[in-house]
Amino acid sequence: MVENVCYHQPCPVCGRTLRIGVMLLGRQVYCQHCGGGFVASDPALGRTADAPGRGARDAAVDRLLEQAALVLEQAAR
What we know:
The chain is an alpha+beta fold. Helices cover 30% and strands 21% of the residues. The strands form two sheets. The protein has a two-stranded antiparallel ribbon. It starts with 5 loop residues before the first strand and ends with a helix.
């Protein structure tokens, strides 16, 4: 299930918004439109250009899942 969780990040080269899987946080990714490379990061989670270790990536995934659960819970009210 975690493999299907994505977030949106703009490409720093062309500016297009890309859908990136949370499992790629901290890894080098490439824009499907312009081919520009950058490190997948999520400023909302405090991610920087530093590649997090496996434990940090798992923690980021857990935080995203918790946030999604809260949003779903609020929407159900």
